[in-house]
Structure to design on (223 residues):
């Protein structure tokens, strides 16, 4: 069965510091990985997906199949990045997303 | 463009009762997925509907059932409610049904079972 692990429930950094939110997955095939974000009083929304190889709001994430990881990184955190971040996995053409438990990021001034 | 809307926003029921949650998909979307999010957990897939047919199901018992209507809106029905059914229920719509499309989430229905 596929599984997504986000080892940090809470992460606190200062503005301007680098930030890395960890995500590890277990799946033997070729997964598709996503990061979803939920800002305060807003709905869950897609931040980025690995197949797009894009940078959104300064965030990037690289799929490392050897380490089965998809860590989310930003070199200089901003206060507006404070939010709940969920890593999610979809396998092949399967419709189902498997989410991690989430990491609450707080960026302090 | 109208986003995904869910109703009601909050609901309190007692154990053994039945509940119906509603979701209107985003304009142009024909696929609706339902997720359950317990406190402190990530969303967990319940099932998906594509063009009025169930298109896949997660590990939920048969007392969780759904419908999708010709206008692509959807209902989630839960029978014989249990205390553990207390959670935030999220609806997400998308265009397609092949699993490659982007999901747009609603704000959720917070269900409390007493």
């Amino acid at each position: 069965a596929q599984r997504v692990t986000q080892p940090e429930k809470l992460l606190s950094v200062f503005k301007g510091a680098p930030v890395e939110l960890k995500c590890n997955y277990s799946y033997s095939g070729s997964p598709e990985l996503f990061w979803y974000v939920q800002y305060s009083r807003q709905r869950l929304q897609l931040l980025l997906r690995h197949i797009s190889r894009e940078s959104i709001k300064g965030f990037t994430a690289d799929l490392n199949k050897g380490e089965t990881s998809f860590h989310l990184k930003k070199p200089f955190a901003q206060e507006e990045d404070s939010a709940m971040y969920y890593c999610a996995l979809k396998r092949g053409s399967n419709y189902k997303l498997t989410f991690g438990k989430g990491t609450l990021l707080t960026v302090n001034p | 463009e109208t986003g995904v809307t869910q109703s009601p926003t909050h609901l309190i029921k007692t154990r053994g009762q039945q509940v119906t949650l509603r979701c209107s998909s985003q304009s142009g979307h024909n696929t609706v997925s339902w997720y359950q999010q317990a406190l402190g957990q990530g969303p967990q897939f319940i099932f998906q509907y594509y063009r009025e047919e169930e298109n896949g199901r997660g590990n939920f018992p048969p007392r969780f059932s759904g419908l999708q209507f010709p206008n692509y809106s959807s209902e989630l029905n839960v029978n014989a409610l249990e205390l553990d059914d207390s959670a935030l229920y999220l609806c997400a719509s998308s265009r397609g049904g092949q699993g490659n499309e982007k999901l747009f989430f609603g704000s959720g229905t917070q269900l409390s079972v007493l």
Summary: The interface with chain B takes residues 4, 43-46, 86, 88, 90, 92-102 of chain A (CB under 8 Å). Chain A has a mean pLDDT of 92. The CA atoms of residues 19 and 32 of chain A lie 23 Å apart. Chain A has no helices and eleven strands.
